[in-house]
Protein: Spermidine/putrescine transport system permease protein
Organism: Paracoccus lutimaris
Amino acid sequence: MKGRGLHVYALCYLLFLYAPILLLPIFAFNNGTVISFPLKGFTTQWFVQAFENATLRRAVMNSLIIAVSSSVFATCLGIFAARASTRFEFPGKGPMMGLIMLPLVLPEIIVSISLLVVLLSMGITLNIFTVIIGHTLICMPYATVILTTAFNSLDRSLEEAAYDLGETKWSAFRLVILPLVMPGVISSLLMSFTISLDEFIIAFFLAGNEPTLPTYIFSQLRFPKQTPTIMALGTVLVVMSIILLTFAEYFRRRGNARTGANNTGGFL
């Protein structure tokens, strides 16, 4: 009986957390337009309607462009920040790293409004590029955390051996260090891509007239007839997110296994 209460609590918590997500595919394949039981029958027409929707396809393309760009920029900046924080000591290192991590604790609504005011005051038109700026800002802390772990797990003697063999700092980084932290880089890319693809608040404020996938879904919720299509779209997003996070965790553990680091503290 020891620990039974904790097991029950964990089960109830997981049911509360994931039960709404499990309902998505159920109603996505339901033939009825009303989200209620009993189910009317099995159908795939909502997925077909979603695929044939031109506005939705445009929103998906915009979200993919934003997510890919944001993940690349955030990972590149994260490499610089992680490399500096793990390899060098310099004045103001702690406050600088704290500023990089600040978006983790700031409410996104505050970040969004601040960016909106700054961009408009600079005369910048709201479009996909402004969303990429916002998503890079919120993805960079996650990328930095992942890459800091990857750089911390490296054996510094490998870098010193490369210098002893005549390599420059750049060639040692490119030929020795970067390949060793590549699983962390891939994990950072996948994590940042997932965060950007699902992010709504910043896209809502900074996208202008360009729809993204989350903002499109939000705009369609006021139309009851569109609910089954949104359920189908939500099912696809959940599956994609699970796949991406699984790959991110796989590459994180693969990187830790190569360097002998601890596998605790993962995403899944």
About this structure: Residues 1-31+38-43 form one domain. The chain has a mean pLDDT of 82. The chain has two domains: 1-31+38-43, 46-259.
